[in-house]
């Protein structure tokens, strides 16, 4: 195609450099504005720990000018809480016991340590009870962003996921008398922490919890005791509401969430002005929550350097210097050696013995204990780094200037970036502290320089996170890891991963990373321990020689394709300078893979490697667009937790025939380390990843931090928060301590406890683990999984264990290989139930066989035999566009086959026309006279498709009609006398010739003559087929209708409409020197129909061929558009272009190591949701939508499109086409195409100036939709998108709640001005109605053979369309030909609507559903009822203004009565009655008219006509 020529190279280079500079400056300005709007400053108070602080309330009372207005309230509130805590300890005389948590015959929280179990058993035998003293001292210490210098990472509500700012304060427990001995073992310490999700579920559902959710008892009981003390009635006026919540989603740790009272006095608030008595606004709500305090429990332990000066540590180059930061004196209740990652600190009663690491280490459990020791030291680590960067001190900043640096700004940008992607504040995601310590490492290792700006530091962070091999699996290939006689395959995989895995240590102050490791006392102790344990016995080959290697080994598993691994404890490693805590231990492999891919995509956006190079696309994609869990993936499945094996049955559950005879498992051996919840979560994700292989690019479990960022909570004010549960946008539940238990208690018996998912929704009857899948459409249809060779015993055992003995079988392939393999056939899973049916095109529209594999793996390893199969959420939406695949499928059930049949018929027709119009010389007719079989003087060079059904886009593809040579379906005794729909549109192009006429009128006559001759030639061949023996014309049947513009005929059962494309006519119109307006309109019409129509078809067909699910999304979107009565006013071509944008807009954001996060959708569900999101969120007033699947539009032309768009829109952004969609065919020189050139390809650059003046303008959306229609469609898309997302979140793939997105509610119908009821005899398929559509998958059993017949709404609809209207059906006999022609096109309602729109478009907008036009809706235009000056030329449908306050030149107004009577008369043959809902006459007298007439007026059509 020909298009705009780019400028000369030197001008293009200048343009590119200028654009790059503009984008860089724009990005800098945008980020600066974001930072200024996001930063929050609240200085922490100086809290007293041993004396009452009531006398020191004035400390920090004054507010700095840059602080939040409510910052003095924070300091005052913390002083009050501190006083209450100090007074509640009772000087260490208070005794605590598990009975403190007892309620209603059970326990309010789950307690699971060994001492608690002995306490319960001892209670039944009258033995002594377990009691322990409360701690003597508690210290409140600000931590996190609240304690960082300059409040680094603290943001306001808008940059905090729309959450109220939460300030973290550590409750440091004195270890004296509270913990001691071996309380670090077997969950005793952690029984002070519990899963608030468990409590919420206990309170609302009454189901038991698992053993890890309180891996401990003392800390749990103390938390409940403090919560009860703070929530006492005498303290409520000072403390407010107290809630129990998890710490960053960790089920093993509790935190208390404090909400200040509503009536807390704000002394800094200026006095309010007196309100007027009659103020309609009412009193201002002063009880809005401004902040919350989160109390985090930890042990009071200072493991920093012995000597320091202020906040600057003393450093020495001497290796033996005792003043080193790492050489701190250890004085703690837990021995330092118990913090080694190879220690086993949590042992169940029934220890597993099949672990690869024989000692059964628990590094995650140990690290969770170490976290409680490092709250203060971590804050100090970040603060000292900030001090070195700012050149100041760690003291509170002055009231004049806030402390700020690129560190602060970068941390805020990282926080916003992670929040928008659901990568922050989950149980398995980043925290603000995690991001901060990674920045500390980069600053201390010179990965980020002090002089770098915030965006440079942000880029360095993304580069670091995306390029580091955190898991050691970037270069791992499992098939090359073959075991030997001395080393197993699993050990080989483990060694390779450990060797490649990265591990880092944050350098100490004044040292580099290697020096820090050399001077670390923990590393020395580990080396000493290794030497002592291995002396004289020989070191084990798996025993690491250094502490860092030990971390790498024990945070790595041997999980791979052909290795048997039942432990999935992989995590990245970033250690503090003391090497006692891993800051990244909570991050699972799935999170690391996803976050690395996101970081790589961010780098691409920053460096400008995206399509939208104009308009600030990088900033929008990085920080503004929300792409959380429910919009990131292609499919979602729910694993019911009540079906997962209980804690007591792990390791002993076996199914005959499901796993190998050895009874090995693929998960569960890491329960003691990770806990039951996390073990199940990681097990499901990793096992599904292994089974699905390259069929998916990502598997991710739903975690906290992925809620609706727009609707964060149902409780916003402090007045009603005290006794209610609420969930913020992170979906973190907070349960009030004062809430009613409703007799929902937790039993002490562990055997009844099932695991809990990371996110608990109160709307769920039973908790489920939600798993998301991003599917690779190219590999998802692979039906064979090949395993290892038969001689590989270890690999074969692992393969059979993964798939089960029933599925994994030894097979021989054509290449001679004999291997274990799994073959997925149509009968691999049950698909006869209505909620789990198999659709005919599921391999194209539902991600291949991914759902089958997931169903099998979950049922085999994570569910009971009798449990229900898991299924994709919203899967039954496919029933609108496809049929059900059964044992004996109907010919109408497969939409893809129906489309292919049409295309085969088109290929046959095209071949017939080209062959039989080939001219040969026949001298008998004259010398050199050329003729063809069809009698045409010119041969047909090409036959081009134009119809949507020839590019897989038709919702109901045509079915061969018996009267046109098609098949007989259903009741063969009757056939329809009409074709319900439009004929298939194609165009023919003749060979070039100089014999074409030179005038426009003669050209039209010549085209008509060609069509007449073509019809006569086909009829002549049919008449002569008996004598010549030619049977190829037998496929032509039915009448042939000829008009001046087209020929309609029947071929192979289909109705075809043929038009002629004459390129000579286009050249003639273009070469006119002074064309008239009619000539310009004719040229535009011909170019749009012949040239742009053909180019559009080729573009869309290429997209649908490359992305199989794209055509299904177009068809489902067409159904949605029609369901909301937007047919024809939102063009079908616009729908196709928007879907093409969705599937082709994603750039190459992947490399050899990372998957793509912006990959095109692979299922109908995800594609349709993205279509709704694009329609509802795209800024149509300020940005064009450029659709360029094959990158034909150059950067220069993109800039030209934007400049022309801005010029057309004008300063008010209300000019030009409302929906501004540009494709490569929308260039005004497209009629010059030669068939080989594309946009930007031009040999000469001398015409740059002339070509730069050419226009890019929409053609498909040039007229429709109007602004009011686009606004309505966007609002409907937003509501439908939110509703479908909520349906997916609620779960229940068999529920039909999603169908509401395809219905018009009765309330929405009343928003129209008038409704016209269509006669039911004109309705062929009432199942597609906008108000009462058929949305149910019906399953029925036939009596003969008990065959279950399952039928989808699509099948029933297409059968009704094939049968046609009842009144137009006629008898059909096989041996008797009735001379009754078939009508090629029957669309009476569409014709009526087109007529109404043509005649009355200036008064009203008409809406209807093209698939079930039972109602035609009208909406008055506001301008129609504005008073106008009188003119005899345009006095139709007007009457004089009847009010006294008329103005000059405003004498008449629209007469709605005459208009409605005229509309009723025009539609009298189709419309049965009309209901007027808005019977107004003008803006001035509408109230008067409404008083005189009923608001809903029904008029009979016949009476109106009379």
UniProtKB/TrEMBL annotation:
Residues 406-472, 632-830, 929-1105, 1107-1230, 1312-1472 form the Nrap protein domain. Residues 341-353 have a biased composition (Basic and acidic residues). Residues 259-286, 307-327, 341-361, 1482-1506 are annotated as: Disordered. This is U3 small nucleolar RNA-associated protein 22. It holds the Pfam family Nrap_D2. PANTHER family: NUCLEOLAR PROTEIN 6 (PTHR17972:SF0), NUCLEOLAR RNA-ASSOCIATED PROTEIN (PTHR17972). Residues 315-327 have a biased composition (Acidic residues). It comes from Cyclotella cryptica. The lineage of its organism: Eukaryota, Sar, Stramenopiles, Ochrophyta, Bacillariophyta.
